[in-house]
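Quick one from the shared queue. A colleague (R.T.) flagged Reductase as missing a structural entry in our internal table.

Convert sequence to structure tokens.
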Amino acid sequence: MLYTPTPDTLYHPPPHHVDPLGYSRLAIITGCSSGIGLATTQLFLAHQFQVVGLDISPFDYNLLRVEDHGRFHFHLGDLTQPGQIEQGIQIANHFGGRIDVLINVAGVLDNFASADGVTDADWDRVLATNLTVPVKMMRAVIPHLKQRPEGGVIINVASTAGKSGAVAGVAYTASKHGLIGATKNVAWRFRNEGIRANAVLPGAVDSSVGNRIAEQKKGEGGVDLEGYKAVEPVHALQAKAMETAAPITALEVAKTILFLASDQARTINGVELPVDRAWGVV
Ligand SMILES: NC(=O)c1ccc[n+]([C@@H]2O[C@H](COP(=O)([O-])OP(=O)(O)OC[C@H]3O[C@@H](n4cnc5c(N)ncnc54)[C@H](O)[C@@H]3O)[C@@H](O)[C@H]2O)c1
């Protein structure tokens, strides 16, 4: 059963209840300070997971239930910088003495620039954050996951842009395609060592990255207008579909991540799971 941890309806387990989903399990979540990472942190804490959250932006503890504070440990740092991933793992080791789940959420958007216009700085920034960091996080965590008798789980947050060439700029598209490839490689390589690795592919989510796309559509935020024009028809299709449907929330993506981390998904390994109300079929 999956519960909803929005501030009004946070799941309050009865005092005698032990949630078997997260009880005595530790999850590392990158990008925990906002959007999908924050919703995932709240949801996992509501299910009694211990959570180590890593983010370059400060974390607002007011966004957590007071009773969850003791199971949450936050590390502030830029994961693209040397030593930061190792520090996060060290904290997890001190905090829980075990790592059961890794969720790579941290990511940045590009400015829709195409291959003929992308700058070195943008390419390096987007690829470092969206692809290199998740792969290094997996490298650091896999030895710990292997030690879990009940198996370890990795969930990587990719994007519709991980399957489609027609929704983002070249850097974001390449980074998310790469992340799906890395996920599938880990799933196959470690399938007999108790590790599952899956990717979720959100469509347009109501979060800061989603809002930044909306700003960029209005010509703000340094968008490459020619690059954006090339993908605009596909975004228009998605926007049209959303006129009659509620927007996809960060919490809905978090629920999919929780499902993949749960025993209910124990035979699911190496999938690319869209969370997009069918936008990805275009
Ligand atoms: N919002 C969408 O519409 C959407 C759609 C598809 C995929 N995604 C993916 O979902 C993930 C989360 O997106 P979101 O909408 O929640 O964005 P967000 O900006 O709200 O959250 C991303 C978080 O990652 C953190 N972060 C960025 N760079 C970092 C770094 N170098 N080190 C540590 N932390 C860093 C940010 O501080 C932020 O808290 C991203 O990987 C994004 O590509 C988002």
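The chain has a mean pLDDT of 90.
Helices lie at 35-46, 84-96, 120-146, 170-189, 208-217, 225-242, 250-261.
Added to the table.
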